[in-house]
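Board notes (copied after class):
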Amino acid sequence: ALLRRGQARGEFRADLDVESTAEVLRAMQVGMMQHLLSDDPALDVSGERHLAAASQLLVAGLRRAP
């Protein structure tokens, strides 16, 4: 619903495949959670910079071009 509202408001790309994007976002969330729960220090994504990087990446992919 959030993705569809963003499209309707012109905030997100009109060509966004909402269903596939929602599935990918869920998969990314699960992956991040798995890394957070891992004991492997090479998989540490718990820092603020990781959240910021993920957020910037997501927004850049969703936002419509100016």
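Comment from the instructor: Residues 18-37 form the longest helix (20 residues). DSSP finds three helices and no strands in the chain.
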